[in-house]
Design brief:
Layout (H helix, E strand, L loop, with lengths): L1 E6 L5 H15 L3 E6 L13 E4 L8 H14 L3 E6 L2 H5 L7 H14 L2 E7 L15
Parallel strand pairs: 1-5, 2-3, 2-4, 4-5
Helix pairs in contact: 2-4
Length: 136
């Protein structure tokens, strides 16, 4: 499953994502990973959740982030869910440039049975067609 929280800044996407990840850790059959662009939310998560701060790595595009996520999956075959907060802040890309990224994670989701939960900022009226099936 791929679930996306999409909307303008300040609409509660991160809060909803944090609530979902903290609830998920109790019921998930595998490891839970939370990926963010800084360390600001680290202490909002339960200790069982693996926190990854992308600012510590050279992630600067959709393609490099897709490779980064693939690397996380390849290092841990027990991952049950990956949460990504602020996809726009991590990749610094426009919402129109994410289709290949979503194709990559859909492949990971299907092959490794990993659920993805993602928050993205953007204007709701300008939501690209390829994202509509993932909206939470």
């Amino acid at each position: 499953m791929i679930k996306v929280w999409y909307g303008e800044k300040g609409t509660g996407k991160t809060k909803a994502l944090l609530q979902a990840v903290n609830d998920m850790v109790q019921e998930c059959d595998g490891d839970v990973v939370f990926i963010d662009h800084n360390s600001e939310r680290m202490y909002d998560l339960k200790h069982q959740i693996r926190y990854v701060n992308t600012s510590e790595f050279k992630v600067d595009s959709c393609a490099s982030f897709a490779g980064f996520v693939s690397g996380i999956v390849s290092a841990d075959y027990d991952i049950g869910a990956i949460f990504i907060d602020g996809l726009n802040y991590i990749t610094k890309a426009d919402v129109d440039h994410y289709q290949d990224f979503f194709d990559t994670i859909r492949g990971l989701e299907e092959k490794f049975k990993i659920d993805f939960y993602i928050s993205m900022s953007g204007i709701t009226e300008e939501l690209p067609e390829y994202l509509k099936s993932y909206i939470a």
